[in-house]
Design brief:
The protein is α+β, with helices and mostly antiparallel strands. It contains eight helices and ten strands.
């Protein structure tokens, strides 16, 4: 069984508060892109994880990996041979580990014939939205998911300059935690959607640039490509995205990024 774990992109991310336990409250529009990691599952007596692919270096193949933890959480003691094929960069704000964990939960629940229990958020704040796998408004600490109007067809270019950004460092540099939530999600067509999105923001973008200034250079490079309706950082960084109405413009933009930067053009999934 082979399953796709798509990249998760926060097209908008507002920080609206902070709980007494230290968790930040978020209001975010989340979509998924047609680029990501792949997982393969085979029956086995014991749990085992092999990590392969162009981004495998440094990814643990034991219980430190969210895929392993997801399997243990879903059905402790069950066996499976899992291969994780890594294509997404690490610590990049596009939900690589969370997407892999959600994919493992979906694939193993089918292979083992077990229901997915409540409480998947214990694996990580982004795992519930990745398990949902559709465009959605995500709020709370990531556990509240609300439907949004149908998105227009569009393409996205994801760019990472090769810098890993620690989420804790970015939140630590955030100066204001009480910010306005997203406006009511409503749009008509790509131009309408781009207009709505331009009235939103990523409250973590400025603190992330303080931690990793190269993010600013990535945003500037994306914003100047032909057809880019909006350039913004995803999540806590350091991957940035540009939105495009058509495939040709997106692929051209990805192709002109500097050598050594990770750049991928992909459709936004519905």
């Amino acid at each position: 069984m082979r399953r796709f774990a798509p990249a998760k992109i926060n097209l908008a991310l507002h920080v609206t508060g902070k709980r007494d336990d230290g968790y930040h409250l978020l209001d975010s529009l989340v979509v998924f892109a047609g680029v990501g990691d792949w997982l393969e599952f085979s029956p086995a007596d014991q749990l085992g994880l092999t990590v392969a692919g162009p981004r495998a270096m440094g990814v643990p193949g034991d219980a430190r990996n969210l895929v392993w933890r997801a399997a243990d959480w879903l059905a402790p003691g069950r066996g499976a041979a899992i291969t994780l094929e890594k294509h997404l960069p690490h610590a990049s704000g596009i939900g690589g580990g969370s997407a892999d964990a959600a994919c493992a939960v979906r694939g193993l629940s089918r292979m083992w014939g077990v229901e997915v229990p409540d409480g998947v958020e214990v694996l990580g704040a982004d795992v519930p939205v990745c398990l949902h796998g559709r465009p959605v408004r995500m709020s709370g600490i990531g556990e509240v998911l609300d439907n949004v109007p149908e998105l227009p067809e569009m393409w996205i270019v994801l760019v990472n300059a090769g810098v890993e950004v620690a989420t804790g460092s970015v939140f630590g540099a955030l100066q204001r935690v009480e910010n306005a939530p997203l406006p009511v999600p409503e749009w008509d067509g790509f131009a309408g959607f781009a207009g709505w999105l331009s009235a939103t923001r990523n409250d973590l973008e400025r603190p992330a640039m303080a931690v990793a200034p190269v993010i600013g250079a990535v945003l500037e490079r994306l914003a100047t490509t032909e057809g880019c309706a909006l350039a913004r950082m995803s999540g806590s960084g350091g991957t940035c995205f540009g939105l495009y109405e058509d495939e040709a413009a997106a692929r051209t933009a990805a192709g002109v990024m500097p050598e050594g930067w990770w750049a991928k053009a992909a459709p936004v999934l519905d």
